[in-house]
Design a protein that fits this description.
About 65% of the residues lie in helices and about 0% in strands. It is an all-alpha fold.
Length: about 70
């Protein structure tokens, strides 16, 4: 069988569950970070005597930081 159709795929020793858990953990941490920033935004604005418009840069800054 020299046509190459009977070749077995190579196993590089990487556990697919480890990859899946790593991606899920990173996604969870990003959502958690955004949720914390959203909840903290009114308190940050109040502590700094800033209006809501002046304090809304926090959410785009946290989004940009995660990219």
């Amino acid at each position: 069988m020299a046509d190459g159709s009977s070749q077995q795929p190579q196993n590089f020793g990487v556990n697919p569950w480890l990859i899946a858990v790593s991606v899920m953990l990173a996604t969870f941490m990003e959502v958690l970070d955004t949720a914390i920033a959203s909840v903290a935004l009114p308190y940050i604005a109040g502590s700094l005597s800033a209006s809501n418009d002046e304090a809304t840069w926090v959410l785009p800054a946290t989004w940009w930081r995660t990219r």
